Amino acid sequence: MEVKVKICGLSKPADVEAVAKAGAAYAGFVFFPKSPRNVTVEQARDLAVLAPVGLAKVALVVNPDNALLDEICGRVAIDILQLHGKESPERVAEIRNRYGLPVMKAVGVATAEDLGQLPAYERVCDQILVDAKAPKGADLPGGNGLAFDWRLIAGRRWSRPWMLAGGLGPDNVARAVELTGASQVDVSSGVESAPGQKDAGLISDFVRAAQSAGAIPKL
Q1: Tens digit of pLDDT for each residue in 165-210?
Q2: Is the CB of residue 78 less than 8 Å from the CB of residue 102?
Q3: Which pLDDT band holds residue 219 (cuts at 50, 70, 90)?
Q4: Looking at the predicted structure, is the pLDDT value of residue 15 above 80?
Q5: Which residues are catalytic, by number?
Q6: CB-CB neighbours of 196 under 10 Å
Q7: Exposed, middle or buried, 161 (CB in 10 Å: 0-12/13-18/19+)?
């Protein structure tokens, strides 16, 4: 099984270079002012140009209005829109139809009850990103370095491609892949030396660990 890796929250040319060199499949840019990984449309435009062919560029937005999406899609060479807020299934479908880009919807999970919202989103998006639910009162909907109980989704049948996120790092991503069967994983704070500061060594270690886990034959 091939495990594809998404490194999110890139903000510098060196970040894009490190992600490409490590062999990740997705590069994520965060458009959310409260995040230490936030980039402007101008910054993202310049960073996206540096991404080699084959590295998918993802725009992470939180409850975006059409004005923001118009600006991002009109000025940045984005391949995928990642909706990481409280967008309804109807809003997800509207955005997907309006912009003609694949849409990834993040869904926060803390308990088995949270899994009940997945089918409605699976019907309207191209990919699901299963993330740890942000703590009450948290400023950020993701990127908090928290994990959820991966056993909640072990063995689940998915009708859409999906990605595992939340509290992953070089030391635990192999275990997460083993437990959940994830063929795609996402990391942000787990490959940083400080909030918003990507570490090329950790990026390389993470991608290697994830891909090695996928190479292990399942008995």
Answers
A1: 999 999 999 999 999 999 999 999 999 999 999 999 999 999 999 9
A2: no
A3: very low
A4: yes
A5: 8, 131
A6: 17
A7: middle
